[in-house]
Design goal:
The protein has about 550 residues and is an alpha/beta fold. The chain is built from 22 helices and nine strands. Helix 10 packs across helix 13 (about 300-325) and helix 13 (about 300-325) crosses helix 18. The chain is globular, with a radius of gyration of 24 Å. It starts with a helix and ends in a 14-residue tail after the last helix. The structure holds flavin-adenine dinucleotide and iron/sulfur cluster (SF4).
Length: about 550
């Protein structure tokens, strides 16, 4: 028998007369909700491991390990508190597992799942009255607060939502005025990092017997999944989640603001907190994290910058996801649907279909594509060398860790995909597979709504695109590249080629007015070269080949 099940057996409680709660993989908390409100001795808790879900997409091995380790530790923590625990491996979807237990437990309750995909799975049980949803106490805002902060129809704006939340909750406010005189210090948070102050190393954690067992399970059953498995990088227990947050508070947050947009080959992390994975599975509670930061003595730019991410962006993207039914219905826009689950181009890179792709028959994933971008995701995103040092560096980190920070996601991975006209749905599916913190409600808005501009100005004011200028200003990547950011980097020509291809769609975007005026003045011969480099680089990268400056058409 497994070590985990042995331990659970020693904590067996009488299951009679209990209130039965299903605890999904991303609700591992007793800080709010029924597990906080009810005496654990009155609770019966249901946990389901679902191999069908794990195999649905080529998820990073580290992501599978994060979820399984935390679920198992959390189940033991709750059993120690006195709850009766039913921990099962379900055959087929989650609803099968719950249905099978229903006969034993009677009516089941659960906080409403954050992931639409899980809600869809469980819907038949809700309809049948076997499962009842409770409010999810982890969110910091309500649908009503989002609605009141926005116009009824898009575009929807994060800053209006954020200001509303700050005012309504009196967060960083002096009466009606924001502390420091303005709501955002984003303009001040754009420093290049040259090595000082030194960036902290993320903590390493004990590889306890449970983690080791999960590691073995992954190697035995999910070894065909991509990514590196690094068990010592995984916080698995309640105490380890706290340890990561303590590290983030003391080592990262004081410098979080000024270097928020910096990137470096000396530190994948810089001063980012890495707490997204724990917030999204609720090992850390967003409310407690926010309260801690408000209590701390921090420079205002860092404090405000961090609060904007957690109270602003994180909540805002979830409302956009919910309001558009996961980017399936966008007012005023025709949204095509694509097969779900997509594998993010895994089959093209690996040369074989993802084993579960026979499930991918239903064309029901929202696939907005305002730029009509159709290029398949290049194998470089799965680890094949592209010759673009920025891309190769960030991708290597993602497959090593299952994580990279925000600016690398937006201005390297997202930017290069946008400049290449990569299909936004495929890019989104790639992020979903590759990142430990990716769940539909957060990955779909960030990739399709923000990074790819696939839903137009639905939630951002302009596309996040740039040539080599931004990357060379904010990172040291270019120093390691065969291309030179000013002389021959193909991204510069790709930038102009993007503007030409999408000019008609970009008209009317205020923030792009100066750029489009510049485009009008650009010499026709240069535009021809831009288009040629776009065509050639797209061909090289989609073929899985490496770009080099020697291939003349990439540079002139
Ligand atoms: C293309 C793209 C894809 C992304 N995919 C995801 C994803 O799958 N899951 C995910 O949690 N975040 C995603 N983000 C948002 C953000 O990049 C990550 O939350 C952040 O990098 C996580 O690292 P961290 O915990 O060190 O964050 P920090 O930089 O330390 O920020 C603190 C916290 O703020 C929150 N936050 C900041 N920005 C966002 C945002 N735009 N949306 C939601 N929360 C935010 C996160 O909870 C994060 O932990 C994505 C961003 C982009 C541009
Ligand atoms: S020169 Fe261009 S391709 Fe190379 S690292 Fe810099 S931005 Fe990236």
């Amino acid at each position: 028998m497994s070590i985990f099940l042995e331990r659970l057996k020693t904590l067996k409680r009488d299951p009679g007369n209990r209130r039965w709660i299903y605890v999904p993989y991303d609700q591992l908390t007793d800080r709010f909700g029924p597990l906080a409100e009810e005496d654990p001795r009155n609770l019966g808790l249901i946990f389901l491991e679902c191999p069908a879900k794990a195999g649905l997409r080529p998820y990073h091995q580290q992501k599978l390990a994060l979820i399984l380790t935390n679920m198992r530790h959390f189940a033991l923590e709750q059993a120690r508190r006195g709850a009766a625990v039913q921990y099962r491996v379900t055959d087929g979807p989650y609803k099968n597992g719950l249905e099978a237990l229903f006969a034993k437990t009677g009516p089941i309750e659960a906080m409403r799942p954050a992931e639409r995909e899980l809600r869809q799975d469980l819907e038949p049980l809700v309809q049948a009255g076997k499962l009842t949803y409770l409010d999810h106490g982890g969110w910091l805002s309500t649908t009503e607060q989002f609605r009141v902060s926005q116009k009824p129809n898009p575009p929807w704006r994060m800053d209006a939502f954020y200001r509303h939340m700050r005012r309504e909750n009196g967060i960083l406010m002096n009466g009606p005025r924001p502390v420091g005189g303005k709501f955002s210090f984003d303009q001040e948070n754009r420093r290049f990092w040259s090595g000082s102050p030194p960036a902290p190393d993320p903590p390493r954690f004990k590889i306890d017997p449970l983690k080791k067992e999960v590691g073995r399970l992954i190697k035995d059953h999910f070894d065909h999944h991509p990514g590196n498995l690094d068990l010592a990088a995984l916080p698995g227990t309640k105490e380890e989640a706290r340890q990561l947050w303590d590290w983030a508070k003391h080592e990262c947050l004081p410098w979080f603001g000024p270097f928020e947009d910096a990137m470096s080959t000396s530190s994948a992390n810089l001063f980012h907190t890495r707490i997204s994975m724990l917030l999204n599975i609720h090992r850390l509670s967003p409310g407690e994290v926010l309260a801690d930061v408000l209590d701390m003595d921090l420079p205002l730019a860092s404090r405000e910058g961090f609060i904007r991410q957690v109270l602003g962006w994180r909540e805002f993207v979830r409302h956009v996801h919910e309001t558009t039914d996961g980017f399936r219905h966008i007012p005023g826009m025709h949204v095509p649907h694509m097969a779900s689950p997509g594998d993010g181009g895994w089959h093209r890179w690996s040369g074989r279909p993802w084993p579960r792709s026979e499930n991918a028959k239903e064309a029901n994933a929202g696939a907005p594509n305002r730029q009509n971008a159709k290029v398949p995701l290049p194998p470089a995103y799965w680890g094949r060398a592209s010759g673009l040092a920025c891309l190769d560096w960030v991708v290597a980190g993602v497959w090593r860790e299952g994580w990279s920070h925000h600016i690398t996601r937006l201005m390297v991975l997202g930017n290069i995909a946008a400049l290449l006209d990569v299909n936004p749905r495929e890019l989104c599916d790639w992020f979903w597979c590759a990142y430990v913190d990716a769940f539909d409600w957060v990955v779909e808005p960030n990739v399709m709504g923000m990074s790819s501009f696939a839903a137009g100005d639905l939630m951002v004011t302009k596309p996040y695109i740039s040539g080599a200028g931004y990357i060379s200003r904010m990172s040291d990547y270019c120093r390691r590249c065969a291309f030179h950011p000013k002389k021959n980097c193909p991204l510069n020509r790709l930038y102009w080629a993007y503007l030409v291809r999408h000019e008609s769609r970009l008209q009317g975007i205020n923030r792009l007015r100066p750029v489009l005026a510049g485009l009008k003045k650009r010499d026709a011969a240069l535009k021809k070269k831009d288009a040629r480099v776009f065509k050639r680089l797209t061909a090289v990268l989609t073929a899985g080949e490496q770009a080099t400056p020697e291939a003349g058409t990439l540079t002139d």
